[in-house]
Write the structure tokens for this entry.
Amino acid sequence: MSLPVAILAGGLATRLRPITETIPKALVEVVGEPFVFRQLAYLRAQGVRKVALCIGYLGDMVVDAVGDGSKFDLEVVYSADGDTLLGTGGALRRALPLIGEQFFVLYGDSFLPVDFAPVESAFHASKKSALMTVLRNDNRWDKSNVLFRDGELIEYNKHSPRAEMQFIDYGLGVLNDRVLEAYPDDMPFDLADVYHRLSLDGQLAGFEVQQRFYEIGSHTGLKEAESFFLNEVKR
């Protein structure tokens, strides 16, 4: 059975305005269906049974739309930031009581055509605290930020990427809860900083994937995602 999945869906989605002035990014329609619906259906097809949605901006709308997850044959639970947006790391820290000791994490604006089972197996085999999926990027979709060589993740650095970094964080990770438990559960912090520290400590495994990711974090990304799903429908 697959690990539970935490979806980080609490951001303000400023790059998608004016679309996101009245709805959260998770509910932006992609080819006639809210994006989070597409994520949840895909996760269920992967064998996932439980999802924790980390919500913030207009989060009540997500709860109303998704409900308890039964229409996706999933158990969906919610962890809300509250009055202060907690960032990606803080949101996960708050959600720990809902998701257990080990879990997948993905971003609420990403669709990742990847088989979860080998990723989970690689995480367990690594004996490390976390795993990051990586894609050979060469600065195609965003700035490459991972030094990955001979199957080993040497360093991840989102804030200060270097020319020798040819890979990028694909957007699917696996975490052990202990890497977050040291942080207060009401303090904003960035998951990218957690990953960076883990990589320097030799505790971040890497798993290379081959197929590109799709995201709706920007208007350009949204158009590319729409094209992807339209092509899927035609198959």
